[in-house]
Amino acid sequence: MGVKNQTQVVEFVFLGFSGIPNGHIYLFLVFLAIYLVTVLGNLMIFAMIQLDSRLHTPMYYFLSHLSCLDICLSSVTVPKILVNFLYQRQTISYNQCMAQMFFLMSFTGTEAAMLANMAYDRYAAICKPLHYSCLMNTKVCTVLAFATWVWGFLDAAFHTALSSRLDFCGVNQIHHIFCDLPPLMKIACNDARINEVAIRIASLIVGGGPLVFIVFSYVFILSSILKIRSTTGKRKAFSTCASHIIVVFIYYGNGLLNYERPKAGYSLATDTLVSTMYCVITPMLNPLIYSLRNKEVKAALKKAVESWRKSKHHHSKS
Q: Of 217 and 315, which is predicted with more confidence?
């Protein structure tokens, strides 16, 4: 991690909520509610996929990984934010900051690749239906999921290693609400050009690569859907992609706002809002989107609720 860095800066101070000095208790309650909805919603999706045999398909296998990623992504930032609200000290130690940045970049990079896996699954299902069972067998799905997690962690390890070489010369105020590479580079007092080049290349490969793959997948998917003669068939094919498309738009829209800032940057209030949308709100929205728009998930949820009611009724009788 660099002993030199730690002797210069022991902890960092987040300035993201400095404009709201007296509302920390309300912010604590809001962030706690969001975190609970995120964790419970994603756990519900994950549990239903494991318990309902109708959801034992590649699409829902990748969705279960997405739910795990959303819980992890939210857990990297929100608990620390909640603790800081309680103690009314917006600080984080140097080592915690490096760890938070590492896991944040790991999970965001992995999520981008996981969304590409889900696009490939939809491509195989709609464009290559006769070969679907071969293209998306259990082994292929397992390898794709494993490679996706490794991909995210290797990218984060590279950036964290580069970041540990940054010197801060006593400057420890971060214009952000959690540790991330761009705000850390801003307060570094040594040359951060290597980090800037690395993050640009990573944005193109780790972020842009999956997005290009998703776009091309949907070009072929749309072409195949338009060839379907019946309106019902078209609607059914498109409905299996709708939730994924919405999640991709939200993820990449917030990602672009968070990482592709204008050179002048945002105001502190805008920056705080954008960061909150990216790492706090987005993980909460994904289970809601899939549960509200997906017939299979709604059916599995209904079945789970009915089973719970029967179990409760049985226990009350006995």
A: 217
